[in-house]
Amino acid sequence: MSIETLVANLIRPEIRALQAYPVGKAEGMVKLDAMENPFRWPQEMVSEWQSLLADCALNRYPNPVAPEVVAGLREVMEVPEQYEVLLGNGSDEIIQLLAMALAKPGACVLAPEPGFVMYKMIATFVGVDYCGVPLKEDFSLDRDAMLAAIADKKPALVFLAQPNNPTGNLWAEDDLVAIIEACNAPDHQGLVVLDEAYLPFSSRNHLNWLDRFENVVVMRTLSKVGLAGLRLGMLFGRKEWLSELDKIRMPYNINVLTQASAAFALKHYVVLMQQCEILKAERTSMQQKLTQLGFSVFESEANFVLVGAPESATAREIFDALKQENILIKCTDGAHPLLANTLRFTVGAPEENSALFAALSRILNAD
Ligand code: PMP
């Protein structure tokens, strides 16, 4: 039997139908595609960190509960003592843990769309149904459609990213509450994950919703605040949920170098937050300049801005022309019907944003 036939016989058809998560080549480019923080640390901080790393014992397994990281997170994120903290290799791993734990046969994962693609991909990985509920045209939540889908599909797990990726906006609080309550009703129970990946750039924090709702957990990450390379995500929630999820976490999922680096970075969190403040100011100026260039600019509480292309060029043309100029953004056109002819710009450092606007002016002949 040929290897192709063997693979086709053995690998689940829904896995064979998947496309791997796309990561474009970006060497030498101005990288405004992946919501990273563009800033490095000040040199004295780098030197201190390097000497810490020199003391890491790579011959030993990491501490399975990463106590220094948990303590640092509790402090900077003001997590009340009564809640537990679960760490993942990025919040991607936490999404996977949640899906694995709730994936009873016939279970369903539900999320508004357009949304973060890993919710759907991970549902497929673990073999459960996925239901995407379209947002309204202005990217607000379609409360009626969400409640109808919840009544129909009875999802075990609902993801609500606040701010949402790729749209960048926050949703009305009463819509969120209606969804959470519909998932803790006599006829249906589901766990709602409030995904606060972009919290450092947002005006709303949902940590105290853990007090209000038994069926809510809050997920965050250090990726957007400046530590995408470390891979550290976290889940905050009641002990009853987290102690179950912890049973399926790989014992050493947070490696020695990540633990040392994250604990160090959390002690210097103020440096990262200052960088985020610069990015928030850059976001405002980016939105103004994009508007001046004729883009339709959507509101954003994140470190990226979603836009509709101006009349003079399509999203795809602008994406290709920027790539020619060594600037990488995200072409969201085609990712979802509501994203037709749109682009997503990650907010970069001031000099990167200047390079972007110089290139956009050339491309759109706006000089
Ligand atoms: N949630 C949302 C909404 C995201 O946009 C992302 C990253 N793009 C993640 C979670 C995953 O982040 P990480 O795995 O880097 O923690």
From TrEMBL:
Domain Aminotransferase class I/classII large: start-end pairs: 29-355
Enzyme Commission number(s) from the entry: 2.6.1.9
Major enzyme class: transferase
Biological pathway: Amino-acid biosynthesis; L-histidine biosynthesis; L-histidine from 5-phospho-alpha-D-ribose 1-diphosphate: step 7/9
The UniProt record lists the keyword Cell membrane: no
Record carries keyword Transferase: yes
Cofactor annotation: pyridoxal 5'-phosphate
Keywords: Amino-acid biosynthesis, Aminotransferase, Histidine biosynthesis, Pyridoxal phosphate, Transferase
Self-association state and partner proteins as the record states: Homodimer.
Family: Belongs to the class-II pyridoxal-phosphate-dependent aminotransferase family. Histidinol-phosphate aminotransferase subfamily.
Protein name as annotated: Histidinol-phosphate aminotransferase
